# Entry
Amino acid sequence: MNTPADSNTRENANTNTDISITANATGFSTKTLNPQILVTLWNVERLGSFSAVARETGWSQPAISQQIRKVERELDAKLVQRTSHGVELTPIGRILARHGQLIDNRVTQAVKDVEEYQRNGSTHIRLVAPPSVCSSFVARVLVHISKTSDIRVSLMQMEPPEAMEALEQGLADCAIIFQYNSLPALAGPDDLEVAPFGVDPLMLLIGANNAIARQYESSHLPVQLVSARSEQWIAGCETCQANLVSLARAAGFTPEITHSTDDFWATQNLVEVGMGVSIISRLATTAGIQPDLAALPIADNNAFRTVCFVTRKVDDRPAVARVKDEIERASHQYLENI
# Structure
């Protein structure tokens, strides 16, 4: 995060915008921390030297050193240590730097929000979504929005962890994500609002001539995942792979994962030629599956994912609300009620 260009101000920077913090059980007394020093520590962590920080921020190296020494005296703790390659943060320095990263992200986001508004007003919305959502109903919704309003939506394909990161870093305005019931909810900043749209059941993708598929044709009962324990497995993205492992372990086995791809058609081709089986979402099957494959319901209460819409709480633009409402309305044709 760059600071104002007045070098004299930089040289004499002090704690004009102090934030009081109360120390924890380590024995520190109440101290004051300048938000700028937190960002400076984040820059030291990121860039690895005072000189690099000085070049990027426009501050002088003595001013940076003076700021850090002042906080070290107040906290009675070393924050930076020199190495043969430059400088690195101590554990306490890294703790403070994480807060500096959050501050830097928010200020960067504020600048981007203003720039975006100045370029496009309040009607340009950057949406990120996973492949299965992009290939099912979102495209139709975007066409409808473009024909019935002046809202312009830019769509980018991203898996949930990357989507949450894009929101946090100000690279997206809203996101459609999924959360597997077998896994902990995705972590995100407190300023994000997550609105569930519906439930997307998971299915076992397998060759139509496989004994498990033939058994399902006879019984029409959801399949026990353990019946596929001897199969090789094709995993998806990292989150999808974690879900596969969690469901398999709950069923009493560890899956032998031989391939990994987030391309649904590549997954189908691998299953078709006998390279393994996979877990997919029912939403993904709306794009079609090959005739010699079968997508079977799974007998597990955790075999589903929840599809959600995520925005920043402070973003109250009508265009964001319109995009959310239109996508939610369309999703009801594809998702089950929560």
